[in-house]
Design goal:
Layout: H1 2-128, H2 132-135, H3 138-156, E1 159-161, E2 174-180, E3 190-195, E4 198-200, E5 203-206, E6 208-213
Helix pairs in contact: 1-3
Amino acid sequence: MEDKNLEEQLQEEDTTQKENQTQEEKEAEAVAEEVTEAAEEAEDTAEEEKEEDKKSEKKTKKSLFDKKDNKLQEKVDELEDKVKRQMAEFDNFRKRTEKEKSAMFETGAKSVIEKILPVVDNFERGIAGLSEEEMKQPFAEGMNMVYKQLMQELEKLEVKPIEAVGCEFDPNLHNAVMQVESEEYESGIIAQELLKGYTYRDTVVRHSMVAVVS
């Protein structure tokens, strides 16, 4: 009887031990799970921090790049502005040079034309002094041909005679050297041209010397 009680006691102790062991294993598994979860959480946190660090690094790099890009753009804008100003200065210089060259050419052309006009005057006087018979002579015909050619070349250069007789007196074009009486023209009208005037490109080279009706 005592043996049976002892055996039962041993079985109970074994059962209790097994239950305790099972409980310890469960607790150990729970602790292991907690450790695993903690490790996973720590790993996730580390990954998040790593991602945050990467984002922060990217932002820092982007900020540095933006600053560098802004400085580069400022330099480009500065160079563009400098080039534009230099181009504007060069364009002004070119226009000024062309204007000066044009003015010098105009002055030179007028000077040459002024020297040619007395030759034209002499041709006209010489031809006007010839009779009809003399005009038929080869010499007179040759002289007339040279005169016409000279006038054609002057016309190509935009040299034109100023209209005078029958026109109203214009101090910008005519130089009145005398007043005359006239039954044909009214007062203020040019009745006689004493010396023909000329213009070069709408600029007076020589005023006409005229007699105006008083």
